[in-house]
TrEMBL record:
Fe cation binds at residues 115, 119, 313. It comes from Paragemmobacter amnigenus. It comes from the Bacteria. GO terms for molecular function: tRNA N(6)-L-threonylcarbamoyladenine synthase activity. This is tRNA N6-adenosine threonylcarbamoyltransferase. Binds 1 Fe(2+) ion per subunit. The gene is tsaD. It catalyses: L-threonylcarbamoyladenylate + adenosine(37) in tRNA = N(6)-L-threonylcarbamoyladenosine(37) in tRNA + AMP + H(+). SUPFAM superfamilies: Actin-like ATPase domain. NCBIfam families: gcp_kae1 (TIGR00329), T6A_TsaD_YgjD (TIGR03723). Keywords: Acyltransferase, Cytoplasm, Iron, Metal-binding, Transferase, tRNA processing.
Amino acid sequence: LTFLGIESSCDDTAAAVVRHDDGTEPAILSSVVEGQTALHAAFGGVVPEIAARAHAERLDGCVEQALLQAGIRLCDIDGIAVTSGPGLIGGVLSGVMLAKGLAAGCGKPLLGINHLAGHALTPRLTDGLSFPYLMLLVSGGHCQFLVVQGVDRFDRLGGTIDDAPGEAFDKTAKLLALPQPGGPAVEAEAAKGDPARFAFPRPLLDRPGCDLSFSGLKTALLRARDALIAEKGGITVQDRRDLCAGFQAAVADVLAEKTRRALALYAQYGPAHPALAVAGGVAANAAIRAKLETVCATTGTRFIAPPLRLCTDNAAMIAWAGIERHRAGMGDVTDLVARPRWPLDSSAPPLIGSGK
Ligand code: ATP
Ligand code: FE
């Protein structure tokens, strides 16, 4: 089976071709990702209208590139998978419209994919993981623990009740005049800082369950910064490093402890070989990764971190989810709709349909 995947739900325009034949390893024949960081940089965040326009302008070219690099013609693929939500509606619509046109034009099956399902199924593409496994999705827009039970079965064990950790990293960078995206910049500063100097809170650790919160941390950082400014009229290079180190340590501690709890809940699903997979840009953070690895090592859990380009937004994960769904008989939809919101719970409405 060879699928074309299309992704345009946030600020990356992406197209990819993935092939998987029975008894072989899946192959990513191409994966084109065109980011929009520069377009939004001046505004301090993603501007939906600008994103939608950029997707509309770039999607055709990305698809063409993906087919060219894969060395395959549109008429030779077996199906088209497109992110149909959740995300910024203008971008999602651009992708869905293009996919509908292509599918109609070449008479191929069209599958609508939940973006989060794309992330959640990625460890099966990269590591051949079998169900069930625990997924920690930590990105700029999301933070949640999912038990992935099947192609279409996800149980949400908990998640953030406010900001996503990536967002907190980005805001921290902004408060400390570091460049965007904030994650890598804060991590680099933190490496030279003292994590113990500022006592940042570990939100929600006193509460049972694996829900998380990151907005209080951001406020604590702002207060610590302002206290330094009030005291000395500014912050030194070392102050900034220590603030970053303290902030990062707090995020890592919270994620590690909540992961421990999520693993305990997931044990009730009776996994034969317990596994934790991570996805999302924050999973690139070495300090966070190290903490999660320790939690896994001490609980006999296999730790899986797909390569970063497959952890962040891409279309290979969408093509792969398309292959998985197609195989499971969850086929073609002609009444595919774009959805701005689309929770991934098994208790949620049917994953594909007329938006009911
Ligand atoms: P989503 O995919 O959930 O809609 P997104 O597109 O913002 O959101 P990703 O592309 O997966 O998410 O990740 C980007 C986020 O990851 C940014 O917030 C960025 O700051 C963060 N990030 C990237 N590298 C690091 C790092 N080394 N440490 C911490 N955070 C990081
Ligand atoms: Fe994503």
